[in-house]
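Subject: Interface between my chains keeps coming out wrong

I've been trying for a while to get a sensible model of this assembly. When I model each chain on its own everything looks fine, but I need the whole thing in one frame so I can look at the contacts. Pasting all components below, labels as-is. Any help appreciated, I'm running out of ideas.
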Amino acid sequence: MGVVKRKTLWGSLSLGITLSLALAGCGGNTDNSNAVVNQGTKDPASNAANADNGSAATASDDLKPITISAFIGSPNQQPTADNRIYKKIQDELGVKLNMEFLVGDLQQKLGVMIAGGEYPDLISADPKLVTAKAVIPLEDLIDKYGPHLKEHYAAYWNRMKDSSDGHIYWLPNYGAYTGETHSNSYSGPAFWIQKNILKEAGYPTPTTLDDYFKLISDYAEKHPTIDGQPTIGYTTLAYGWQTFGLLNAPEHLSGHANDGGVVVDDGVASVFATADIAKTYYKKLNDVYNQGLMDKEAFVQNADQYNAKISSGRVLGMFDQHWNFQGAENELVAQNKIGETYVGFPLTYDGVKDHYLDRGVINLNNGFGISKDAKDPIRIIKFLDAQLDEKWQKILQWGEEGVDYQVDENGKFFRTPEQRKQQEDPAWKLANKAEALLGYAPKIEGTYSDGNATDAGSQPDEFYASLKPEDKELLDAYHHKTWSEFFSPAPENPVYYPAWQIDLIDGSDASVANKQMSDASLKYLPRAIMSKSDKFDSVWQDYVNAYKKINVKAYEDRINAQIQWRIQNWTSK
Amino acid sequence: MASAPKAVSSKTAVMTAAPRSSLLKRMRSQKQLMIMSLPLLLYVLLFNYYPIWGWLQAFQDYKPALPFSQQDWVGFKQFKFLFKDDTFLLVLRNTIGMSFINLVLGFVTAIVFAILLNEIKSKLHKRTIQTISYLPHFLSWIIVTGLVANALSVDGGIVNVVLMKLGFIHEPIMWLSKPHYFWGIVGASHVWKEVGWNAIIYLAAITSIDPSLYEAAEIDGANRYRKMLNITLPGIRSIVIILLIMNLGWILDAGFEVQYLLGNGVVVDWSQTIDIFVLKYGLQIGNYSLATAAGIFKSVVSITLIFVANTIAKRFGEDRLI
Amino acid sequence: MRTRTLRLEPVVFQSFNAIVMIALAVITLYPFLNTLAVSFNPGNDTIRGGIYLWPRVWTDQNYRAVFAGGTIYHAFWVSVARTLIATVLSLFLTSMLAYTVSRKEYVFRKPVTIIIVMTMYFNAGLIPSYFLIKDLHLLNSFLVYIVPGLISAFNMIVIRTYIQTLPDGLIESAKVDGAGDFRTFFSIIMPLCQPVLATVALFVAVGQWNSWFDTFLYASSKQSLSTLQYELMKLLSSASFSNSNPSVANGNNANAALNMVTPISIRAAITIVASVPILVVYPFLQKYFVHGMNLGSVKE
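Reply #2:
Try treating it as a single job with all components included. I did that and got this:
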């Protein structure tokens, strides 16, 4: 057979990507705070004043030109050599960035980098690098040379400390908010249902699984085909790393926030995969399946097929994170099938309050760190501090005034249709945006001191401009202004939230158990759902037995130990 | 050294133990052969053998963050984890099963294809078909499996549509959720992707067959099938045997990409291979030592197998790998 | 045959064979044509599925995305250079080694064969290999593409097997004429081995051309050493990433409608860009093994 070159387990192209996505996927499990969160920790006005001082200070600072090498642990495209924004940074801040981006598998790349013992100046976060002592503590540097950084992270200072030795190694790239956070669309988890169904049923608000599937079955009965193809009542995606559509629903139905594989009650985490809250949901899916409403191919399909089905407009509903099928939904919009796009509802079991929406959390163990090989850490901190200035944040996030955006008579930023269009052109972006730096560097999120949203995506006017007439009609019928209003406002986060962010430690019993649990779920849940109604209980019993063989406790213990640690170390203000 | 060619003209002559002095004499006469091969042997020892010290990490809890000397030595823990797991026998069965199917299907289809292609008279047609047949080799598995999944879909997939039109089945079959079809689907996908590529080597071998043999057979009145059977097949016999022995050594390398991309929870008991197991419980959770341990296990099996196969081939008087 | 009675059999066979071959050509051509069609179809439209042999809407945006960075032109020449140099060197050294182990009288034949063959069945692992490359000062050097993989055990065995099928008399008569092994190898074996050398050249060249992992491990921080496949891998990784990353996919509908280039469409365009140059080479090699050599003339 393909005997020419023996493929090594390491050396596969697509698998490397699958892997790095798997890792990205864990992080992608949640955090979709799109509610209007008023952080309230800072007064925008005083923030602005400080920012002004800061920029004055930076200007007089020593700006001797420097080249900073950086490794970015995600695949991005190399910007063009004459990229407008990077050039501006080089001209005005004296910093030339020499970036290397990940290709293939991150863990592999880091393994080799650590083994070789040589690092670039700036490096994106990974716990391995701390263990390897590849990065230096940043607290003192920030204290002395990073006034913007110090203020930016003031509220999160304790959380940023590494749990092993109390030093700060990483500068989180997301989740430090300033002013008001606008969020209009909702990209988190929900039970999604087509807008046509709601319209036909007179805009009801389903709150339970029964309400939801009643709407779907009534509609499917009336419309056995959509655009000539058979209607699919409900589908789910459980392929590769994209398994949350199948696995995460029970925690939301039972009113818990998204903690990944566990639910946390009174600070104690437990695995819910075989709990009653899970059984109730999958039993319901079993009923739905035997009713003929569930997609027969749900557990066999890959992500491409799932998206193709959704974009054909004949899938009535599914549980998923919005961003996971957004591409398919965009395609429906492009075909002007607005009625076949979706609204998300926070379904719960009877009498339980929903907790789908959550507040943004600081993106710990992410962003940049400075390596032990960096020749001039002070200069690097000064650079990261300078780019956090509002002036530079606007350049990085919005672009240059008059070129990338306009300012109206009220001082509001907006983009012309042409400017919006060029933001969509990948080739243009490589030459005109500093996306990689923006993605990993500390950044202001929320609003600037002049009241503009920090980036175009969350500027309210940009959102309203994008709504279609059908969307407006639907929102009006529910008396809502944004999609996130379908959900209860996000309560204050518990101090340890979210549990999914906890590192399970490579190769530990906890991480082995985690794998075994997801294997067992992917093996038995489809069988249970697709079994005859009277067989469900016995398959479920097999499932429970399979879990009994797994060291679930090792997994729970690790999570609980970290939750306790967080409560002790993070509670102090 | 005029006697040398005569001495080696029969296999047995080499095998008979030569006295020591004659060995030295032969070595002296083979200076050129040694110059041609020994530096390259050193090269292989350096690039392929020297790094084997890395196998030691199979007996450690290897963490890349620490220098080698500070690693935790754990003895046979990794091997125990590998062999003790309930699923190990299952993944071993799947690996061997799929490898075997791929081996047989891959050989048979490539050989038949090469021989049939050889029967085509028109050079242009021959070349065109050969070029087309090896195109899928250049597509990645992710593309090919995507096409396979679409072709097998219950939702208008070509396979179900055709079978229904022909009246073989009355409702679409969910091919990819039937565990017992999985090996066959993987085997067929391999054939689809690689048959043309695998045939190249046999086509090259066919060219070494002396055309006068065909002419002689024709005079004897042999028909086409006789010639294929009695001349073409024996002509490529050595390469077939050698490739078979070599491939036998890869029986535990059923791959992981196809199975990973086509597999799903429903068929996992038939789709999971050793490599996937190692990927999940080794590489994906940072346990590099497990991957090394599995690699050692596979190497031991491979090398045992090729020596056994080689001995069997020798006994039957066939060509040998070693 | 024609001169004898016209028999039905050859006609039946030829038609049967033609049908089989055409069917095979159709099913093996399809994936490539499908990839070609997808590569010319807008990515967001491809999500809907149903692209077979022809794009639904023509676009060159996928190819524009591939060529946008401008880095792949230089990388293309690096790939050409490494493929040419490594193929010539590897072909020469591997066949020379193959010749020595094909000589039954060679005293080291067995140990050399065993040592080389075994390399097919083990793999030392990433980290030790990395250290070796580092110690040899091959990191971030063009030589790292050439030096480590010059000898392939598989190819050596293939060539050896071919040499062994050549008539023994050839070499013996050369020896009688007083030719040393070098001369025998160059002037008799090499010319006679054209078909198998063409095959092995193809194997080596395709392997070299498609390789990106060595760039990833050993030369990723030096842009001037980047190869075509590595640039294309970068592109593919970044397309897959931005499509599946919540923080990128986040945001409102206005700027989310932008994913014109999706992983599926970019992968298709990349596949075409990467494979066309190597496919072009093939017909040139093909003549060596479709024609066949007339060994009879050299035989005695």
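Reply #3:
Confirming on my end. The longest strand of chain A covers residues 66-72.
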